[in-house]
Design goal:
single chain; nine-stranded mixed β-sheet; four-stranded antiparallel β-sheet; 17 strands; globular
């Protein structure tokens, strides 16, 4: 579908990826409705560990999203699409001239203080809530940002050269989110709160495209449980490795992926397969630049994602995204932990077993 089609607000960025644009007129009305029905009735200070009230109101008001956005998200949920990009959502007005960002500690709002002077991305939270609840339910890991259900993704000086969401000086390599864990997100959501120019590209790869670029021998080898992935120290002391990983799963017509920058194999042919696949994935990567009010939702088993390096200044005006992990069926967690005891704690995985 092209921009000259009957609906110029939605097009195919690529096979399996829908890109939806919201007009400024639509955005104005959406913002009015959201403030009336979602933001007004909830506390003005967001709580990164408890999304229930805000996301529930957002879910009930999901029809505020244009029908074409909801249709694209339904396609993602049902497997007809691998990713959806939305541009033009009403964005939070943020003051760029303020002290450097401070990381919140996971309790209450940013900074952990209900009286914090940091701006609150209330519109961003609302769009995350609407999209999350159309796809499933938010959840988190106690080892990841203190169990927060919504993550701030911002550069930090101590993580500038790492393969983490705090990096900026290096390209973030293509990966599956939480690849080392036995319970991985079905979908990952990224929302742009602040993104100064020049905007770094989020690299997005459909596994079907990458597989099509590889030799049959490489695909065959990557379908075997011959590989290992390392977990970060926060999830398993000492950075334990997960052995017997089968990077490519699914069927030939519907491949899936489990991949991480640490993936390794012992056999020379395994190492060669890793190198070929990495090169193939980079060749077919799509570059999505998330502006304020842009949202990217993608299947974590059908897509790889990474990010280009960018210059960070640590002056309170750097790139800032919100991220949410989504499970289609939250009862997958209940089968392990039992029914929730209240306050949404069931959504924060506490175990260090990574499998």
């Amino acid at each position: 579908m092209s921009e000259s089609s009957a609906d110029s607000h939605i097009r195919a960025l690529a096979d399996g990826i829908a890109e939806v644009h919201i007009s400024s007129a639509e955005a104005g009305e959406m913002a009015r409705l959201v403030w009336e029905h979602v933001i007004g009735p909830v506390p003005r200070q967001v709580d990164y560990r408890e999304t229930g009230a805000h996301f529930r109101l957002a879910e009930l008001s999901g029809s505020i999203l244009p029908e074409r956005v909801r249709a694209a998200l339904a396609g993602l949920r049902e497997g007809a699409l691998d990713a959806v990009v939305v541009h033009g959502l009403p964005a939070d007005p943020l003051d760029d001239h303020r002290p450097p960002d401070e990381s919140h500690n996971g309790h209450g709002g940013i900074g952990g203080d209900a009286r914090s002077a940091q701006p609150q991305p209330l519109l961003g939270w609302t769009w995350l809530g609407m999209v999350t609840r159309q796809l499933g339910h938010e959840y988190g890991y106690r080892a990841e940002k203190g169990g927060n259900l919504v993550h701030d993704v911002r550069p930090r000086p101590d993580g500038a050269a790492t393969q983490s969401n705090a990096s900026s000086e290096v390209d973030l390599q293509l990966h599956t989110e939480v690849a080392f864990h036995e319970i991985r997100p079905d979908f990952v959501l990224l929302y742009g709160v602040r993104s100064p120019q020049p905007r770094p590209a989020t690299r997005l790869v459909r596994i079907a495209d990458a597989v099509g670029e590889c030799s049959p021998e490489t695909v065959r080898r990557l379908r075997e449980p011959r590989f290992r992935i390392c977990a970060p120290d926060s999830f398993s002391l000492g950075g334990a490795a997960v052995d017997g990983v089968r990077p490519i799963g699914g069927t030939p017509g519907w491949p899936t992926i489990r991949w991480h920058s640490s993936i390794a194999g012992d056999d020379p042919a395994d190492k060669a397969a890793i190198m070929e696949f990495r090169a193939a994935a980079e060749r077919v990567a799509h570059r999505v630049r998330l502006a304020p009010g842009s949202l990217l939702a993608f299947s974590n088993s059908r897509c790889l994602h990474g990010r280009d390096a960018f210059e960070a200044h640590y002056d309170g005006r750097d790139r800032w995204l919100l991220r949410t992990y989504v499970l289609r069926d939250i009862t997958r967690l209940m089968s392990r932990y039992g029914p929730p005891a209240g306050d949404g704690a069931i959504r924060r995985l506490a175990e260090t077993r990574i499998a």
